[in-house]
Amino acid sequence: MQFRLLGSVEAWHDGRRVPLGPRKQRFVLAVLALEANRLVPVDRLVELAWPDSPPRSARHAIQVCVSRLRAVLAQAAQEAVLATEGSGYVLRTDPMRVDAHRFRSLLARARDAGTDEQAAAVFREALGLWRGPPLAGTAPEEVRARLCRGLDEARLVAVEDWIDAELRLGHHRALLDQLAELSAYNPLRERLVGQFMLALHRSGRTADALEVSRHTRSRLVDELGLDPGPQLQRLESAILRHDPTLDPTGREPAPARRRHTPLVSPAQLPADVAGFVGRGEDLDWLDLMLATREWRPSTAAAVPVISGIAGVGKTALAVHWAHRVRDRFPDGQLYVNLRGHATSPALRPAQALARFLRALRVPPEEIPAEQDEQAAMYRSLLATKRMLVVLDDALDAAQAHPLLPGGPGCMVLVTSRAPLADLEEASPLVLDVLPADDAVSLLARFADAGRVEQ
Question: What are phi and psi of 396, to 5 degrees?
Fold first, then answer.
């Protein structure tokens, strides 16, 4: 039996996926598999499964999960056994049957490899085990991050080590797109930034490499109060003097092209909703959409579309969630009310694009008159940025489509009365009215609690 934790939690046996039951049950198995062959106390499982306030029945619920998991594992008893030891449980199995442990083993092999070709191949094999954020969909993000912080960091370091090997092999041009994505998602990670700068310089794009360096320096100062580290400073100096040792062929790079208008960080979200209540499952779904996008930046990412009847709370949910995750989009947040269902005329895509371009500090005289050219400039400005774009009250897919940025670091959130099924990569979230308990809690915030209880 094989256990997959680097993405959604899965078990496979004889080439078939094994049903693992509900989310809590999958989470218990994931924790035990992360600690394969080590005792995990029941209290630890309870604390992780219910981080805020565990119910009185929590220990019994864990016992039920373990009992059901034993039935699942029974079909491969020689390969994995869930044993009770003292006040906890142990998953007895070969660690190489767990992708997280196999990943670490492959990293050790790659770092002991004799050549860069061998190392790069093993790093690719290790990174190929990843299908998304570890334990995706089994726990709240804060619990997932707490359990998997070491794995997340190991993955990033492995990516950097693999890129170093590929750069030494002279594969800088093939790495440019991936480095643009990675540096957009990790703008303060100086090693990745340096790799991106080196690949740009070697590809004849010295001006772009220096722009990346200036942008990183400004962000480090603004957000952390720090200057770039000595390694990044030395690299910038070497690029400025066209040091031939930076080029693996020993030749100076070709002249670089000019770069577009510098970008600032807009923050256009409306004020967060005071006293926001409920929608826990909907917020979790949006969190999962973001996590999946962050870990699969090279693939076509879904566009969440929050739909529902008028007044159900689509905008409130979108704005509240956007404020919760705004720190994940350090290049800024764009917002527009498309007025798709307002009494006034709906906003034309060209009008919305012009607003976005002005927010990105494009001088009015440089904004193209044609919508297609506006959209092209908009996509270019956001190509390597990490931004959240909220399109509120869209009328239809035709209105929203030109406003989708092409950059892998950007995420779009749309609200509409219709699910916009014909919008590329649309992933619908249909809102219903608040459940009764949440509705009462909301009413109690604005009325006398005693009267509400009556």
Answer: -160, 180
- Distance, in Å, from the CA atom of 188 to the CA atom of 349, rounded to the nearest integer, reads 33
124: enclosing H helix or E strand? helix 116-127
**Whole-angstrom Cα distance, residue 42 to residue 73?**
19
Residues 354-379 have pLDDT tens digits of 999 999 888 887 888 889 889 988 98
Q: Using alpha carbons, select from 265, 386, 388, 271 the residue that is nearest to residue 319.
A: 271
Q: In whole angstroms, how far apart are CA 355 and each of 97, 144, 222, 372, 382?
A: 53, 38, 26, 15, 14
Neighbours of 280 (CB within 10 A): 10
Distance from C-alpha of 250 to C-alpha of 409, rounded to nearest angstrom: 34
Q: Which residues pair with 90 in a beta bridge?
A: 83
Residue written as tokens 């603004």? 222
Determine the Cα–Cα distance for residues 262 and 275; give it in Å rounded to an integer.
38
Residue type, 411: M
User: What backbone torsions phi and psi does residue 90 show, to the nearest 5 degrees?
Assistant: -135, 130
Q: How far is it, in rounded angstroms, from Cα 161 to Cα 169?
A: 13
Using an 8 Å Cβ cutoff, are 52 and 157 in contact? no
Adjacent-strand bridge partners of 392: 337
Q: Which residues neighbour 252 within 8 Å (Cβ) at sequence distance 6 or greater?
A: 242, 244
Give 338's contacts (C-beta < 8 A, 6+ positions apart).
346, 347, 352, 391, 392, 393, 394, 395, 399, 400
Percent over 90 (pLDDT), the chain: 53
pTM: 0.65
Asked whether the beta carbons of 394 and 346 are under 8 A apart, the reply is no
First to last CA, the chain: 56
